[in-house]
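Sequence design from tokenized structure. All designs in this work follow the same two-part layout: the structure record, then the generated sequence. An example of the structure record is given first.
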């Protein structure tokens, strides 16, 4: 366990900050989304420091609705008047608003100031109220979404300044990427912090937004997904499980609740892809948790399947790097990930341990069955440099996580 003391250390999250910088002066409304406590507010603060340091003629209009001093701006009209009053026509104007969903009527205000074409607009909001699927409805102008994830392995190493990355990965598997939990030296306190975030995310945000009537069913589905990360599942399968346990939940309701859990950035759904037919399959998806520390905090260790935890970490890293990912199917074989970005395509298998020759054969055989020329990769915990076998690259997971 790593003990830090009582103050949060800050690191520069360059990937996200650079993306915010690149879109300065574009006509989009920039919307920073992501799971609770992933660092959206701190990212906005870092962006302010960048402006102050690198832009000579700037005017920042910053509103943080977490601070009580902005309680007089909780309606759209007051917000519009405040922004207009603080506009400076002689300078480059930045409107930066944190937790914007607390302002009633914020949609009309943002649409109005966007139409004036004289502001750079950056906003953050609670995950349940700033959903990717809702942005085009909320805002009439174009939006540019910046999805912030918990700390990557690379950021974890930077935060703790660890030299041995093989050792660091074992710590990262335990600690996860929710940096707020790093302040707690005791596992019990760390878990309490993580439980509080997760339960708030479900019970307050999702229930409030979607007016959930069956909260016990939502909690049951959440626990099921936590316990079945990286397993093939479907709403029909879950409905059958509930009936076996003498609980109720129809197919449509279960499907909706699964959508809500994904909309809140708690889980990421991965569809299946028929490699031979080059088509997407509609049923039986996989679900990956935004950060595996939540699973350990809410369910306990039990008999942890590290292979599935590794697979979850790889999935989130692929999303972080901007890939579209799918579960590959080829005849009766499964490929953990088909990752696509622009013209690039990678086939990936993930395994906790491939020292056993039979295990290695099990992982490598599906990849060898694919006859196209795209890259094929096995990611595992080697604790040493990777190698090539039968034309397949085999790499240690910590080395891969640090590669670009």
């Amino acid at each position: 366990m790593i003990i830090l003391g009582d103050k949060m250390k800050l690191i520069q999250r360059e990937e996200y900050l650079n993306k915010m910088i690149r879109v300065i002066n574009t006509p989009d409304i920039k919307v920073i989304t992501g799971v609770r406590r992933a660092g959206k507010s701190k990212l906005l603060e870092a962006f302010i420091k960048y402006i102050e340091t690198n832009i000579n003629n700037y005017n920042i209009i910053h509103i943080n609705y977490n601070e009580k001093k902005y309680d007089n701006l909780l309606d759209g009209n007051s917000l519009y008047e405040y922004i207009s009053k603080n506009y400076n026509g002689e300078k480059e104007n930045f409107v930066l608003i944190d937790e914007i969903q607390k302002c009633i009527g914020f949609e009309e205000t943002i649409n109005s100031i966007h139409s004036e074409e004289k502001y750079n607009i950056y906003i953050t909001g609670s995950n349940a109220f700033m959903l990717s699927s809702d942005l085009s409805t909320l805002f009439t102008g174009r939006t540019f979404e910046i999805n912030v994830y918990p700390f990557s392995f690379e950021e974890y190493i930077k935060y703790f300044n660890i030299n041995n990355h093989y050792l660091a990965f074992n710590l990262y598997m335990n600690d996860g990427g929710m940096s707020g939990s790093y302040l707690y030296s005791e596992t019990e306190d760390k878990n309490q912090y993580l439980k509080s975030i997760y339960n708030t995310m479900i019970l307050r945000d999702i229930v409030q937004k979607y007016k959930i009537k069956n909260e016990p069913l939502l909690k049951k589905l959440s626990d099921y997904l936590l316990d079945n990360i990286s397993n093939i599942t479907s709403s029909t399968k879950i409905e059958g499980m509930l009936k076996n346990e003498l609980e109720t939940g129809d197919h449509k309701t279960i499907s909706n609740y699964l959508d809500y859990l994904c909309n809140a950035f708690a889980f990421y759904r991965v569809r299946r892809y028929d490699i031979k037919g080059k088509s997407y399959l509609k049923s039986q998806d996989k679900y990956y948790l935004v950060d595996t520390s939540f699973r350990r905090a809410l369910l306990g260790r039990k008999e942890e399947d590290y292979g599935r935890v590794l697979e979850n970490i790889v999935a989130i890293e692929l999303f972080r790097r901007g890939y579209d990912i799918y579960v590959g199917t080829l005849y009766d074989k499964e490929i953990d990930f088909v990752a696509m970005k622009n013209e690039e395509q990678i086939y990936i298998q993930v395994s906790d341990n491939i020292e056993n020759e039979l295990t290695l054969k099990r992982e490598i055989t599906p990849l060898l069955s694919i006859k196209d020329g795209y890259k094929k990769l096995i990611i595992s915990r080697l604790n040493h440099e990777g190698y090539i076998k039968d034309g397949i690259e085999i790499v240690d997971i910590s080395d891969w996580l640090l590669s670009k």
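The longest strand covers residues 279-289. We note this feature because it recurs in several other targets discussed in the main text.
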